[in-house]
Write a structure and sequence with these properties.
By secondary structure, the chain is α/β, with parallel strands linked by helices. 39% of the residues lie in helices and 16% in strands. It folds into two domains: 32-118, 3-Layer(aba) Sandwich (Rossmann fold), CATH 3.40.50; 143-276, 3-Layer(aba) Sandwich (Rossmann fold), CATH 3.40.50. It binds guanine.
Length: 303
């Protein structure tokens, strides 16, 4: 059986970051401004701490003005809302990201809705959700993980997306729904499958493009994949790996990679596929937000 081409998300993310860094340098030369990103972390969740550190470091590496606010778990909702309001009114900050999840005593949706839509680099504000769904890409900010998945698809399939059958497995607001919207804009025929979908294997077998975003380790089996299909695996699941020693674990996607690689035409690995793209697209969104706030036109899309 032929082997799929492995889509190198690490290399593509590096090329996106390089492009953003050079566009940021051009912006600095042109306008004297640096894109400004503020990341807010509430509490001490170790995974969130790692993400926030990476975001901050990547922003610095791209030549951005980067600010990190680390607040204690006990922070009140009112104090967090005040901080968001201060950042909304800070002209040096073009992008605001509140790391999720927030502690239980804080109303997540209230916080996300307070972020000015033009500074909402996560693309979670209802205004950005609406703009994306209306196809108003010159005004929308698009959630980073689906945006990164589209870059991988475009770099793999070029202009061949139109008319393809795409199945998105998962209907989350962060990945599944915006991904379906982006695929529809590329003229794919889009199916959104989810936990209640009947006969998921046969739905997936009809797909030329499969985007798996369910958060269940290796749920999508190799023989569900249509020969030659393109597979984008958004899942990042940590599972026990006793073969590596006691207490060890490893990361796997939502797709059984070792099986699927014998069926797909191209496939993203986990880790090293979609994961590295997310932070790269956060940088892209921050630059876009900065240009718009400075009254400049968007640059050529990355996808
Ligand atoms: N927590 C996990 N993923 C994300 C993300 O994409 N954005 C934010 N703000 N928090 C997250």
């Amino acid at each position: 059986m032929s082997q799929a081409r492995i889509i190198d998300g690490k290399a593509i993310a590096a090329s996106v970051r390089d492009e953003i860094a050079s566009r940021a340098a051009a912006l600095l030369a042109e306008s004297g401004a640096r894109p400004g990103l503020a990341v807010i972390l509430v509490g001490e969740d170790p995974a969130s701490q790692v993400y926030v550190r990476n975001k901050d470091a990547t922003a610095e590496a791209c030549g951005f003005h980067s600010v990190k606010h680390t607040l204690p778990e006990s922070t009140s909702e009112a104090d967090l809302l005040n901080l968001v309001e201060t950042l909304n009114n800070d002209a040096a900050i073009h992008g605001i990201l509140v790391q999720l999840p927030l502690p239980g005593h804080i109303d997540e949706s209230k916080v996300l809705r307070l972020i000015k839509p033009e500074k909402d680099v996560d693309g979670f504000h209802p205004v950005n959700v609406g703009l994306l769904n209306a196809g108003e890409m010159k005004s929308a900010l698009v959630p980073c993980t689906p945006a990164g998945s589209m870059v991988l698809l475009k770099r793999t399939l070029g202009d061949k997306l139109s008319g393809q059958n795409a199945v998105v497995i998962g209907r989350s607001n962060i990945v599944g729904k915006p991904m379906a919207s982006l695929l529809l804009q590329e003229s794919c025929t889009v199916t959104i499958a989810h936990s209640r979908t009947r006969d998921l294997p046969s739905v997936v077998r009809a797909a030329d493009i499969v985007v798996a975003a369910v958060g269940r380790p290796e749920m999508v089996k190799g023989d569900w994949i249509k020969p030659g299909a393109t597979v984008i695996d958004v899942g990042i699941n940590r599972i026990p790996a006793p073969e590596r020693g006691e207490g060890k674990s490893r990361l796997v996607g939502d797709v059984a990679f070792d099986e699927a690689v014998g069926h797909a035409g191209a496939i993203t690995p986990v880790p090293g596929g979609v994961g590295p793209m997310t932070i790269a697209m956060l940088m892209a969104n921050t630059l876009t937000a900065a240009r718009r706030q400075l009254g400049l036109k968007d640059e050529a899309p990355l996808f």
